Amino acid sequence: MILVTGVSGGLGRLVLQGLTALSGPDGIEVVAGTRGGDGETARRIDFDDPASLVEGFAGVDVLVMISAGYAEDDIVLARHGAVADAAAAAGVRHVIYTSLAASGERTTLALPHRWTEDRLAHGPYDTTILRNGLYAELLGGLSAGSAGPAAETGVFSAAYGTGRMSVVAREDLADITVSVAAEADRALTSGGHSRHAGRTYELEGVTALGGTDLADLLTKRYGRQVDYHPTSLTDARTALAGHGLEPYQITHTLSLLSNMAAGFLEAKTSDVPTLLGSAPRPVHDLVTESATAGG
Ligand SMILES: NC(=O)c1ccc[n+]([C@@H]2O[C@H](COP(=O)([O-])OP(=O)(O)OC[C@H]3O[C@@H](n4cnc5c(N)ncnc54)[C@H](OP(=O)(O)O)[C@@H]3O)[C@@H](O)[C@H]2O)c1
Which residues form the NmrA-like domain (predicted)? Predict the structure, then answer.
């Protein structure tokens, strides 16, 4: 049996859908986990409540552990550590964890992911680490503050410098997670271990976009010339302070901007095409949609 955590989230929902499509009398068995689970349609799985995990992981062979990164690091480490412990106690045989790709290594986001990878590596189960690239929607969201007004001003300003960010469609990440989880379940059912056991995959986007690329996309979207004006990290910090974000979100956002401007967020290689078995989905429309969603 496969359990997917976090099924109310964008990634978890897609993974559950994909695995459900493979389930049936002769297929795999999949169950949903979420903080709001009622025990009927979904199990209650709250990483902040270890008791829910011990009960929720009962009978689970393959755990698809969707990271729960929206909090300060000490909270994320405690919740991910609780999952590692509960999976061991429940006899889970293979844990698949959605981590962060290597291009994000120098960002503040990386620490809890690398800690979790290490923690899981010491567990009694097989592990597969899916190091997810940055979502296309993430770059769109970062760009949204200036992308909307650009329809009037003709100026797209952001603290991207000349850097670019490699971005990936969440659907591609979900498709890969589904195939890795299904393969793990089949391997366990036939008495073996998955070929993905012990593997770490870099699921980087194969397309990198920067400020000039965003301006070009907005030029097409608005049917008028939009030019990119790089701004400073100081200006970005000031602007973020007025957006009602949690303090840790400001830390992570500035870290992303700083890494992008320094050129670190552009990936060199990716395991996505091989694991997907087809060309990755195009990301330009996803970035434009999320950048202009509020306009
Ligand atoms: N690669 C990237 O660009 C990127 C961008 C943003 C986030 N992320 C990370 O990737 C994860 C999945 O992305 P997403 O797009 O699906 O995020 P999302 O749509 O914002 O969903 C948030 C996810 O966090 C889960 N969660 C929060 N607190 C939890 C807790 N206490 N216990 C268990 N689960 C908890 C939610 O599960 P419930 O069903 O229980 O609500 C949900 O799956 C995020 O949680 C974050 O760690 C990656």
Answer: 2-113
197 and 225: one domain? no
Distance 90 CA to ligand 1 centre (A): 23
Residues 168-185 have pLDDT tens digits of: 999 999 999 999 999 999
Q: 293: which 2 tokens? A: 């969603």
Q: Which residues are bridge partners to 165 per DSSP?
A: 209
Is 66's C-beta closer than 6 angstroms to any atom of ligand 1?
A: yes
Same domain, 123 and 178: yes
Q: Output the CA 253–ligand 1 centroid distance in Å.
A: 16
Among 182, 203, 224, give the residue marking a domain's end.
Answer: 203
Look up residue 202 and give its DSSP letter: E
pLDDT band at 295, cuts 50/70/90? low
Q: Which residue CA neighbors atom 37 of ligand 1 most closely?
A: 6
Over residues 251-274, the pLDDT tens digits come to 999 999 999 999 999 999 999 999
Cα of 8 vs centre of ligand 1, distance in Å, is 8
> Helices (DSSP H) in the chain: which residue ranges?
10-21, 50-56, 73-90, 110-121, 136-147, 150-153, 170-189, 211-222, 233-241, 247-261, 272-276, 284-291
Integer Cα distance of 130 and 200 in angstroms: 6
